[in-house]
Write a sequence for this structure.
């Protein structure tokens, strides 16, 4: 898409209302245009001096950095370097932990490599069937649906979402039972005779162990746990046999068992022989603009650029050489653990609004309030920025150059279309300003220069960008890895071998455990959270756009009409939704297709309407993903 | 270190060993199995008979399991003596059909060799998971010398399945004794293999424990269309090898193979011999203790007031409770019974039955709904008390079965629209005509464009799809509303007064 005089024009893929109205934020009256120190406007120098002086008072590991999956590759890369080289802290993580981490962990386990889609998006157009597990693109990224038009859709979602309404088959499991359903489908695929035995023996390992778990999930047993009928399970596996894709989204990933959930879907894909072949596969749908690139270049607590592991001695050596340093910190803590740590003194937040978006949000707000120093870089006054000691006004999408990596692993150029308002600087300039005040060099402000350094840092890594140049991106579609400037890129991974040393994909034996917080008499309902079409993430941006606010103005809760009336509530009335961790005020919307024991809350709203006041911070043992998608609640009259 | 000895390596014993080890890495676990092979999933035997699963796919554990989980697994051995005073069990190689035997690991608990093949294990806690044995109806000739006669096979073990598979040729007449859940699953599997199946059942309708007569009738009719014949209210009087059965009314049922599936009896002989309290099964309390508090029983051999025997779910629930107790993870764990949902596993027949199904439609203290459509194989009955599902039979309506089971298991109040619940998935609504939509109806969800906005734009001159898209942004997101917008355009065009 492009911007002319602040007006958006869509690219060939189409736009939803969020895209059409995104231009409004560029000149929005609420746009931050001056740094704020304790709420008062100050110069950039004064704000930078203040922050640098305070940071020097703390031990390195008392200072944390919290990044975002919406940052460009250049920013994400430089932020990781800034944390480890300038701050010398191990304490860096990012909001992508709340987004992509479960799928990333499961992808690495199964394939030895995590690229959201290891095939070009356009391949989906050739599919006979596409299964979407916990994804609602009709609201979260409508233009994506154009890629699904030719296929039969199987949608797995406890709610009858707009995506589910378009499905040939909608499977509606009870919240928190996705893993049982995936095991049931694997079992059903075996007894219906649609698994690909030749592929399993030639291209994979570990089927027998995975089967011994799935063997206990015959369709009728699975039906009892999930509520998905045995007949629908059979219909689903027959639809999936052939040219099919299995795609996962946050609905199945944002659980304390998120990694296992995704492993179970990958196991199903492997049993059907889908991955690593032209015309079929497994992929995950990225949630943020740069959800893929943001997780490859060192914003993550355990990771270095090029998808290298921070605890791998060879990887450390390579990065130390590129960065010209002789020391690097070790592995730090994950996002929720950082936001909840009581040994931190300072935090720098870039492109994220955790006061609204983190689980058990009231506890997170308390922790951030208790810090000696909270610094936020944003372009609007987000709820987290409102709490900050120092706020830096930074550029947004149309005002900066850079690259993003999309869900198919393709690197996309972002070109500057407008000058930012006076007083606004890029995140790269902010990082440079802080680093130089900390007496450290090596933090360029030109995106192109940062990208060239990123290329060297990623060279030889799993996500190798070394052959990508801004010039090549003018005319070429490049999917990583691109190990040399002559290399054409890798649109399809795994066609010959998977990325494990033996070239085989791994079945991972996983079993269903159920939600971390099952419903009980005190909290008999299950709450699930998600996005609506008109708003994005914490809503800090979209709640400032009149047209979007008019369409979806306030926090609401979707409930079955019977559940509402049993609580003495009717459509349009204010209600309290209460969990062990907090209470949300929301307007009741009666939705007959909801399960009677479940409620849905969008997570875009602030204050008393924060869905994340309720959510359960139980973490996945591997990915450290919190359990956003299911917690026990009750419904009361407000 | 506590020593737990489990007698029985079926679904209950295997599950308990897994649950114990998951909770406690150190506790000493010994499992004694009478059969020579690894534990297998008995629930899947009907899929083996139906030919959709291989016998090896039913194995619960592989051969490495015992070593990897530090478990003393003693296969092909049966307990010959239980000494409650010294807290020991003595095992010996299983006699009879089994010839192979092995102990995969050297026993880790103190023991003494008593003679050639005898091994004695000491226990702190003993768990009886000895399962059940098929009950054979007292027809003349079915049993010879204490064993099933040639051509007669129970439907209970993997070996039984192998025998059934070997004899179930296409076109071969087969009789199934017993029209309960397992008998029908076996019959359906055999019919699917092309056998000519007759089910002989002593009661007037099938699955009388789980179904009322109406449902039993619809089920028989449905199975009849799949080629299965029924002899109801009939007992087998005599078995003639190679020929078939003579029933008590003199009818002749041809059969080259007779499959016995007439129910099971708890295997209690060891408990009886040890002087434990035994009724139909080994009597246990909510802590799953027998009359000797050091000895527990789970699964089919146990008799708990909240449990119907012969199903796997109670055994699994009991294994979890007992593991909580024996490892001390939750000493307060209690087993309060398992609510049973009966689900027939048979191709093309979708049947679920749960709770109290024998209440009549005119019963004054319950709300009972019943729907019958025998010609399409559908029967649905719902018994509600205090707004909650107390019982149901759902035949031929898979969605309703799944939903009603969830309401029953989770204690969720039934929806006010009872009829929709009973019938399952609502039929898709007919596409509304553009004329019928209210002006506020959102046509393009991606851009929140209502019918009213489209009509206004059309009146303002946007009379083609590209013009409408330009004016309202409708269709520029996912593109899914294109048909609806074109429909509106057609409708608007048609409503325009013809301008000659």
């Amino acid at each position: 898409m492009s911007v002319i005089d602040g007006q958006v024009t869509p690219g060939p893929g189409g736009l939803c209302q969020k895209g059409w109205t995104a231009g409004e934020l560029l000149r929005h009256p609420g746009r931050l245009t001056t740094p704020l120190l304790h709420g008062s406007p100050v110069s950039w120098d004064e704000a930078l001096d203040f922050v640098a002086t305070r940071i020097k008072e703390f031990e390195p590991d008392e200072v944390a950095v919290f990044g975002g999956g919406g940052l460009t590759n250049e920013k994400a890369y430089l932020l990781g370097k800034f944390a480890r080289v300038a701050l010398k802290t191990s304490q860096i993580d990012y909001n992508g932990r709340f987004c992509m981490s479960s799928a990333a962990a499961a992808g690495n386990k199964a394939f030895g490599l995590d690229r959201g889609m290891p095939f070009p998006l356009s391949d989906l157009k050739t599919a006979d069937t596409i299964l979407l597990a916990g994804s609602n693109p009709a609201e979260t990224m409508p233009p994506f649906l154009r890629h699904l038009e030719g296929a039969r859709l199987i949608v797995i979602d406890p709610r009858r979402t707009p995506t589910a309404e378009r499905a040939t088959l909608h499977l509606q499991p009870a919240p928190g039972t996705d893993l049982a359903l995936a095991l049931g489908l694997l079992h059903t695929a075996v007894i219906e005779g649609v698994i690909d035995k030749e592929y399993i023996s030639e291209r994979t390992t570990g089927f027998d162990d995975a089967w011994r778990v799935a063997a206990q999930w015959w369709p009728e047993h699975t039906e009892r746990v999930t509520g998905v009928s045995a007949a629908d399970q059979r219909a689903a596996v027959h639809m999936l046999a052939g040219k099919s894709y299995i795609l996962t989204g946050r609905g199945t990933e944002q659980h304390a068992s998120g990694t296992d959930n995704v492993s179970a879907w990958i196991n199903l894909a492997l049993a059907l022989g889908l991955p690593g072949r032209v015309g079929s596969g497994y992929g995950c749908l990225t949630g943020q603009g740069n959800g893929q690139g943001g997780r490859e270049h060192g914003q993550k607590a355990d990771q270095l650029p090029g998808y290298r592991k921070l605890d791998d001695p060879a990887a450390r050596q390579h990065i130390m050489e590129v960065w010209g340093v002789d020391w690097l910190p070790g592995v730090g803590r994950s996002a929720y653990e950082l936001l909840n740590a009581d040994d931190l003194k300072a935090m720098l937040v870039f492109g994220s609004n955790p006061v609204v978006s983190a689980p058990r949000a009231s506890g997170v707000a308390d922790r951030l309030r208790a810090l000696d120093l909270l610094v936020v870089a944003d372009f609007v006054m987000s709820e987290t920025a409102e709490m900050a000691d120092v706020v830096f006004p930074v550029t947004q999408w149309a005002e900066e150059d850079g690259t993003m990596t999309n869900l198919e692993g393709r690197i996309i150029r972002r070109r500057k279309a407008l000058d930012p308002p006076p007083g606004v600087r890029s995140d790269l300039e902010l990082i440079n300003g802080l680093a130089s005040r900390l007496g450290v060099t090596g933090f360029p402000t030109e995106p192109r220069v940062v990208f060239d350094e990123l290329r060297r840092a990623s060279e030889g890594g799993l996500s190798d960008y070394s052959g990508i140049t801004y010039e090549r991106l003018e005319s070429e579609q490049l999917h990583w890895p691109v190990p040399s400037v002559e290399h054409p890129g890798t649109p399809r991974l795994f066609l010959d071998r998977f990325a494990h040393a033996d070239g085989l994909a791994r079945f991972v034996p996983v079993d269903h455990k159920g939600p971390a917080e099952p419903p009980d008499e005190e909290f008999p309902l299950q709450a699930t959270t998600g996005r609506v079409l008109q708003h994005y993430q914490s809503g800090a941006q979209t709640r400032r756009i009149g047209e979007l606010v008019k369409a979806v103005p306030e926090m609401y809760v979707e409930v079955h009409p019977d559940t509402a009336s049993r609580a003495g509530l009717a459509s349009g009335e204010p209600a309290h939704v209460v969990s062990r961790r907090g209470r949300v005020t929301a307007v009741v919307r009666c939705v007959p297709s909801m399960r009677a024991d479940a409620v849905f809350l969008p997570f875009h709203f602030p204050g008393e309407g924060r869905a994340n006041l309720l959510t359960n911070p139980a973490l996945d043992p591997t990915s450290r993903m919190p359990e956003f998608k299911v917690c026990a609640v009750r419904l009361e009259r407000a | 270190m506590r020593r737990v000895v489990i007698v029985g390596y079926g679904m209950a014993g295997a599950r308990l060993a897994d649950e114990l080890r998951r909770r406690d890495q150190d506790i000493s676990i010994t499992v004694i199995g009478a059969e020579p092979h690894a534990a297998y999933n008995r629930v899947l035997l009907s899929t083996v008979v139906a030919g959709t699963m291989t016998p090896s796919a039913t194995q619960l554990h592989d051969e490495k399991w015992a070593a990897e989980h530090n478990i003393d697994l003693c296969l092909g051995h049966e307990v010959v003596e239980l000494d409650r005073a010294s807290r020991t069990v003595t095992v010996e190689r299983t006699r009879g059909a089994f010839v192979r035997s092995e102990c995969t690991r050297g026993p880790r608990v103190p023991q003494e060799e008593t003679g050639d093949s005898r091994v004695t294990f000491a226990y702190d806690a003993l768990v009886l998971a000895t399962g059940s044995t098929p009950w054979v109806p007292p027809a003349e000739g079915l049993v010879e010398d204490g064993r099933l006669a040639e051509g007669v096979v129970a439907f209970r073990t993997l070996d039984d399945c192998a025998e059934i598979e070997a004899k179930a040729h296409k076109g071969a007449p087969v009789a199934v004794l017993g029209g309960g859940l397992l008998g029908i699953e076996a019959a359906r599997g055999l019919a699917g293999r092309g056998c000519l199946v007759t089910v002989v059942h002593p009661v007037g309708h099938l699955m009388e424990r789980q179904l009322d007569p109406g449902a039993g009738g619809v089920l028989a009719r449905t199975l009849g269309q799949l080629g299965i014949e029924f002899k109801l209210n009939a007992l087998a009087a005599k078995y003639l090898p190679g020929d078939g059965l003579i029933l008590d009314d003199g009818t002749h049922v041809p059969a080259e193979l007779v499959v016995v599936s007439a129910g099971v009896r708890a295997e209690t002989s060891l408990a009886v011999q040890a002087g434990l309290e035994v009724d139909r099964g080994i009597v246990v309390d909510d802590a799953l203790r027998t009359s000797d508090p050091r000895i527990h029983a789970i699964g089919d051999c146990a008799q708990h007031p909240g449990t119907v025997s012969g199903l796997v779910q109670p055994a699994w629930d009991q294994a979890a409770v007992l593991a909580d107790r024996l490892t001390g993870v939750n000493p307060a764990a209690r087993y309060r019974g398992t609510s049973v949902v009966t689900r027939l596993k048979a191709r093309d027949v979708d049947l679920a039955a749960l709770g109290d199904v024998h209440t009549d439609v005119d019963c004054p203290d319950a709300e009972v709904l019943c729907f019958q459509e025998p010609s399409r194989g559908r029967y649905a009955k719902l018994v509600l008390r205090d707004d909650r599902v107390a019982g149901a039979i759902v035949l031929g309506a898979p969605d309703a079965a799944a939903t009603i089971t969830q309401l029953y298991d989770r204690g969720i109040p039934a929806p006010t629209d009872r009829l929709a619940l009973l019938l399952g998935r609502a039929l898709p609504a007919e596409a509304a005509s553009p004329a019928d939509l209210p002006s506020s109806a959102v046509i393009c969800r991606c851009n929140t464009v209502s019918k009213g906005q489209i009509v206004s734009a059309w009146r303002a001159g946007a009379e083609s799809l590209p013009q409408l898209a330009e004016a309202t942004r409708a269709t520029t997101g996912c593109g899914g509303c294109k048909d609806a917008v074109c429909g509106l355009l057609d409708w608007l065009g048609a409503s325009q007064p013809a301008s000659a």
User: Anything to note?
Assistant: The longest strand of chain A covers residues 582-590. The longest helix of chain A spans residues 73-86.
